[in-house]
Amino acid sequence: ESDKKNLIIAYEPVWAIGTGKTASAEQAEKAHSFIRTHLGENMGYDGEQLIILYGGSVKPSNVEELLSCPNIDGGLVGGASLKPADYSSLCRAAAKQS
To answer: Which superfamily does 2-97 belong to?
Structure first.
């Protein structure tokens, strides 16, 4: 039971893996909402306590819109973490959202 409190989910659309393409904020929000609801209703998790990260090409140009979605709790950053200026921009955007 205590393990359920430590679960962090990272979601990336299969079509976005390694492509640099990003889901729209609306698409990502819909997927995250489904994951939260499904795990809450079918797996016994407290959906409100789940941490769900978006991992499909989070970058400075889309991070604020993605993090403004109610069911997206953070980002799983890939390529943008290789450029210090981009990573710093992502961190600042995340700090503004929290």
So the answer is: Aldolase class I (3.20.20.70)
51 phi and psi angles, rounded to 5 deg: -105, 120
Q: Supply the pLDDT for residue 1.
A: 57
Q: List, edge to edge, every strand of the sheet that includes 51-54.
A: 8-11, 51-54, 74-75
Q: Which residue has the tokens 């929290």?
A: 98
Q: Which residues pair with 47 in a beta bridge?
A: none
Q: What is the 3-state secondary structure (H, E, C) of the chain?
A: CHHHHHCEEEECCHHHCCCCCCCCHHHHHHHHHHHHHHHHHHCCCCCCCCEEEECCCCCCCCHHHHHCCCCCCEECCCHHHHCHHHHHHHHHHHHHHC
Query: Which residues in the chain land under pLDDT 70?
Result: 1-4
pTM reported for the whole predicted model? 0.87
What does the block give as tokens for 7? 């679960």
pLDDT value at position 3? 67
